[in-house]
Amino acid sequence: MFEQAVIAHVGVAVTDLDDALAFYRDVLGVMPRPPLTADGATVVLLDLGTGQVELLHSDDPTTPIGKFLAKRGAGLHHVCYKVPNLDAALDRCRAEGYRLLDEVPRIGAGGHRIAFVHPKATAGILIELTE
Fold it and tell me: How would CATH label the architecture of 6-130?
């Protein structure tokens, strides 16, 4: 039996970080962590209970977030699940025929090992796995 995964964070692509942060700060009272950079995007983490919201912004249209914003606009970018063993989860994905965007884990924001599962394999939602 596998240990159950939990939601680590929800990634939201935004066109303006200051505007997006205003809601979390002024309405919810959540103070953002200092900005990070990953994959050419500025990443701001907001702690909400046992999970986080990850605000993602890039003015560079060649980055993954820049391409997403140009094509789809602001909105839900991905859901990240924390798993007990990332390598084992990727092995299970391969064994079940799920298409991976990252065949091997890589380092994401905050130095965490991550890998993405293609949204065509997961009901149209980009899934990030981390441990």
Answer: Roll (3.10)
